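URGENT: need a sanity check before tomorrow's submission.

F., can you look over the LLM class flavin-dependent oxidoreductase record below? I want to be sure the sequence and structure line up before it goes out.
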Amino acid sequence: MSKLHLGLFINPTGQHMAGWRHPEVPSDFPVNFQAYLEMARQAEAESFDFVFLADGEAVKAGRWTPESLSRTASRFVAQFEPFTLLSALAVTTRSIGLVSTASATLGEPYRIARQLASLDLLSKGRAGWNVVTSYEADVRANFAHLPPIDIADRYRRSAEMVEVVKGLWNSWEKDAFIRDKESGRYYDPARLHALNHKGEFFEVRGPLNVPPSEQGRPGIFVAGSSPEGQEIAAAHAEGMFTALSDLSSARKFYTEVKGRMAAHGRAPDELRIMPGLVPFVGETRAEAEARQKQLDELVHPAVALQHFSFVLGGADLSKFDLDKPLPADFIAEQSEKSTRQRQVLQIALHAGHTLRQMCVLSTRAKGHVTALGTGADVADLMQEWFEAKGCDGFTLMPATTPPAFDDFARFVMPELRRRKLVPEAYGTSPTLRGNLAR
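Structure tokens as predicted:
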């Protein structure tokens, strides 16, 4: 029987917008290597498949006011560059996978291929690349040579980028490096292949000047829910991150993505779909509710309103009454703009939440499913989604780091083990791809 797969998203400021204000959270976590290391080692002790880091190449101000931006730590204000951080974690952990985001819109394929191949060697085959197509104005302003690019071109560029990176990772065949001092032969030239790629967006000769690792090449992940992203994942990825808030949507998404794989000659089990999960856990349900309420009360009103506006693509919310539900015509109009906005707004429509309530709710999980209660309650939700084919596992997104992860490890992991839902240990020679195949 296949097992439930688990990854840990280490958000240094916590998934909850007020997570950084929790009294037990190190205020300097984003630049505190020891804090990252302790969380990674704890996830490794629990036999998680991987840890995952997001990335942002700008202070993402967008339409945020200086007042609200200065009250949040979650807009990539100041934190480590992820490949540098994962390289340090590679030599201080032994078995857990190490996955980082790198933009396929901003990056160059040779550089991304080289960085990830190097991380894969350092970690003995535990590296993974999370492919994203982000291209915010704040980021583009730091890369003046890059022209504006529309969303359709971004996805085509990303698809070509993945093809080129994979081609570069195949530059060297296994055992190409002889390193025979007696004969004077360092490598077998018959086992070296130049890529010579010429496409719509890239022209890359190759070969890559980094040899393959124990797992052959780094794993590939795709983040998002769009049809274009689904297609890239179905063709290339070992894992997929997505935001899903209910089981019905999750089952539909799961079936759709897996159904695309046969056209690419791949079996459904070659891709692990792992939506984000934000747990609020306590010894009792009342304790879990108190922890959630504590964080909700720490959200500054300006941050809550600004964040919900950001979730809705910068929509102007100032004209609406905070203590009334959003108008149905506004919800319908905004729902047409993106999958994430539709998911968030449908919650408001069905629950009858006021704008003020929606602002606070948006700071909790940012569109991802939440689970609140005892360890058994959270395990029930996870088991239900897994057995109903709504996912292959979850990417855990603790509301606070590390307190909420400590709670998950203390209350939920023993319950998952009792139900025999998670692997007990790593393999004898763990790689990221090997972890995902357990």
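My own read: The domain at 5-280+369-436 is CATH 3.20.20.30 (TIM Barrel). Residues 151-169 form the longest helix (19 residues). If you see anything odd, call me.
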